Amino acid sequence: MDEKLQGAIFELDGALLDTIDGVTQALNLLLAEEGLAETSVSAVRAIIGQGPNEELKLALPNLPEGEAAKKLFSYNLHYSSVMMQKTKPYEGIVDLLRQLNAKQIPIAVVTTKKNEYAQMLINYFYPDIFFYSVIGAQDGVPGMPDPTSAKFALQMMHIKTGEALFAASSPIGAQTGKSAGILTAGTAWGYSSSKELKAAGAGIILKKPLDALKYF
């Protein structure tokens, strides 16, 4: 690529932060309340990044529709109690974000995670990194893979579609970037395989975080 890109959007789970242990523990706390067997990290790996509703379906696949809101509330309470202790940045991510800030490249986050939790996690783990926006799941905003959140992040960064990179860690993220018309890069360090990410719309694969720097 001859022209350098002017901004970057990141997914949260599997791109910026390793959150799988927290999601798994929260689901297992919910399952314990129901008197059911625990789920595993490998099972959660298959659906993480799809949002709390899908995570809940993994734990309680036969849940009556009328009970979903109540159980989702309980799951969110459990997740909020463990998310800080059970989350960590990926190796190389802090360095990448600091270098992008130093180069005055605007960055943003678009995620299926509940907006409140996304904001808290970013503020806690990256207190010295400037993000133009952090957009999580919230009422009134279409969820991923709808491109609305990604396009809004572009507006906040004051850059055009063709000037950005979308770092996608999940098939839903890759679909989001592609549907928004953004160059989409799969993050090989996350939870999905390169094959899955390419099939969902990733045009390139980043083997490690600092590989992204060559595009800026």
In short, what is this structure?
With 216 residues, the protein is α/β, with parallel strands linked by helices. 41% of the residues lie in helices and 16% in strands. It is built from nine helices and eight strands.
Task: Walk me through the topology.
Layout lengths: L6 E4 L6 E2 L1 H14 L7 H5 L6 H8 L8 H15 L5 E2 L3 H10 L4 E8 H11 L7 E5 L10 H10 L6 E5 L2 H9 L3 E5 L6 H7 L3 E3 L10
Parallel strand pairs: 1-4, 1-6, 4-5, 6-7, 7-8
Antiparallel strand pairs: 2-3
Helix pairs in contact: 1-4, 8-9
Shape: globular
N- and C-termini, Cα separation: 10 Å
Q: Low-confidence parts lasting 5 or more residues at pLDDT below 50?
A: none
The CATH superfamily name of the largest domain is HAD superfamily/HAD-like
Helix run count = 9
Descriptive keywords:
globular; DNA polymerase, domain 1; 216 residues; Rossmann fold; two-stranded antiparallel ribbon; six-stranded parallel beta sheet; single chain; 2 domains; alpha/beta
Overall description:
- The chain is of the alpha/beta class.
- The protein has two domains: 7-18 and 87-215, 3-Layer(aba) Sandwich (Rossmann fold); 20-82, DNA polymerase, domain 1 (Orthogonal Bundle).
- 41% of the residues lie in helices and 16% in strands.
- The protein contains nine helices and eight strands.
- It has helices at residues 20-33, 41-45, 52-59, 68-82, 93-102, 115-125, 148-157, 171-179, 194-200; strands spanning 7-10, 17-18, 88-89, 107-114, 133-137, 164-168, 183-187, 204-206.
- The strands form two sheets. A six-stranded parallel beta sheet has the order 5-4-1-6-7-8, with helices on both faces.
- Strand 4 (107-114), helix 6 and strand 5 (133-137) form a beta-alpha-beta unit.
- It starts with 6 loop residues before the first strand and ends in a 10-residue tail after the last strand.
